[in-house]
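Example record for the data management plan.
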Amino acid sequence: LYIFKAKATILANGSCGYKVERMWTAACGDGIAAAYRAGAEMRNAEFGNFFDVDRKDTDFPIPSGGYSFIFNASGENISERYVTKQEPDTPISIILGMEKEVNEGRGPIYMDPSKTQWDPTKPPPFFAGRWGMPKIIEFSRLQESKQLKYGPPPSPRVEVTAALNAELSPVKVDHEMKTTLTGLWAIGDASYQGSAWAGAVPAPPGRMRGSGVMNTLFSALRGGPPAARFASKAASPEVDDTEVKRFKEDIFAPIRRDKGFLPADAIYAIQDIVCKVKYNLRRSKERLEEALSKIEEVQQRLSELCAKDGHGLGKCHEAKSMAVCAEMTFRAALMRRESRGSHFREDYPEQDDRNWLKWMIVRQEAGKMVVSTEPIPIDKYKIKP
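Corresponding structural encoding:
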């Protein structure tokens, strides 16, 4: 066990993706959970529920233009049926439409670019997911012209599914990336939503696909200097030996157990809740409360976690962090009784600026997770949204 006496700490260990998609699953919310447990506030956790449309053969998101090529088992274009307005990135409506088609017996769902009826000399229809970006349209036309000349690739039809990216990143920060906890800063995807600059959307890839690296650079440039200035003036922190002993016992407890709750089973149990559209996208009071109940059942078993080695011990703490992240997402979503951005409430389908132009703030009080609201200071913004 190593103890670091840090005068200033910068969290830069990413968001929480619940280890679902191979493309970006490394972050398990460890920094988020650590900040929360230490007393820092969270913001916008309800928007950490980004779903994408993935190819089943490669577990890779389909390209933005692929949303116009989605068909049910009967060969019907369901994009034309469900995507009725311009939406950036992955439309929530196509995910809900895919779920409806499968539930009504018209699955599985396929992407089949060979069935497009587009005129390659004209801009694609709005439901294609390409929202006026000239280079993307130019690239798509090039692909389509090659298909007209050489024919479509072999077996263009591929089965697709709704896949959770989540990208929960709610650590609340100010303009200098400082959290509400003295001496703690958070940059990159740990605080993408918590910074509130992107609005009611998840961290990359949601809505601003590919902004992760630049967001990390920008937030590091904003947060690094003030953290360094603070460290240059702060006194060296005192170490509480009693607290260190308690932390050590908690950290290594799983590896001292011969049997118990396996971390792989704990992680799968959490994934089985957060990955379901009925809980994490097509939300309602009843289903959110059910999801919270299931998360609490997992949390009650976390004290039984066991590990055979250091690798397994790490997985145990990943499971604990993911459980905290899932709870804060569902509790914030339950509080927000409207639909906004990537947060969709089936029982409150309309955006309600009069009552819910607010931030959801999550904090720990006396060992319990508490959600409150904070008005968004629109009047102070130089550029009004």
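Summary line stored alongside the record: The chain has a mean pLDDT of 87.
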